[in-house]
Design a protein that fits this description.
Elements: H1 3-6, H2 15-22, H3 28-39, E1 50-53, E2 71-75, E3 80-86, H4 94-107, E4 122-128, E5 140-146, E6 153-164, E7 178-180, E8 183-185
Parallel strand pairs: 3-4, 4-6
Antiparallel strand pairs: 1-2, 2-3, 5-6, 7-8
Length: about 190
């Protein structure tokens, strides 16, 4: 079985193509526009610059499971972003894996002697081509650290976004547009 038999149209969600389009210096404006659009960042909150980071997390011990991120970036305010693409659910462990990844990325900010006050917001964005959250019809779901009964926001330092592309079904696909920094993707 050749490559063309296995993957007929890999599309933009293919890890390699995604990294080429969004994970290079020339792709930084596109990545920034995508993150701004998905997180609905505007005005003072809008990301004006992203610094792409190494996708490999350092291991402290040989036995550590070191994640390899699809894309890691930091904005000019120090906020961190991890963008992952996933074509298949695998063995049903994607939710736990995404939580592990954001936890590792968040904790990488700390060095010996650093103050916990210096920890900055870390955002995870997962673009998945399968139904991850079967109990919701939402295409884009956002999770924060909240108190279970009252909904009180404990902290906004961790934010997880899941975009389930299979749930996207606009009534008129030709009229669907996603505004991205003065341009559109239709």
């Amino acid at each position: 079985m050749g490559y063309s038999d296995r993957v007929k149209h890999p599309g933009i969600l293919n890890d390699i193509l995604f990294k080429i389009v969004f994970g290079t210096t020339s792709g930084e404006p596109t990545m920034r526009a995508l993150v701004n659009a998905l997180l609905d960042l505007q005005g003072a909150d809008e990301i004006v610059e992203l610094i792409l980071l190494s996708p490999v997390s350092e291991k402290q011990y040989i036995e550590d499971k070191g994640p390899i991120f699809d894309l890691k970036a930091r904005d000019s305010n120090g906020r961190q972003y991890n963008v992952e693409v996933q074509l298949r659910p695998g063995v049903g462990d994607y939710l736990k894996r995404s939580i592990y990844y954001i936890s590792r990325f968040y904790s990488e900010q700390m060095q010996r002697g650093d103050s916990y006050q210096d920890l900055l917001k870390t955002v995870s964005i997962s673009l998945v081509d399968f139904n991850l959250l079967p109990d919701t019809e939402e295409v884009h779901s956002t999770f924060l650290l909240r108190e279970k009964s009252s909904g009180y926001l404990l902290s906004d330092v961790l934010e997880l976004h899941y975009v389930e592309l299979r749930k996207f079904n606009p009534p008129n696909p030709k009229s669907c547009e996603l505004a991205l920094s003065g341009g559109c993707i239709s």
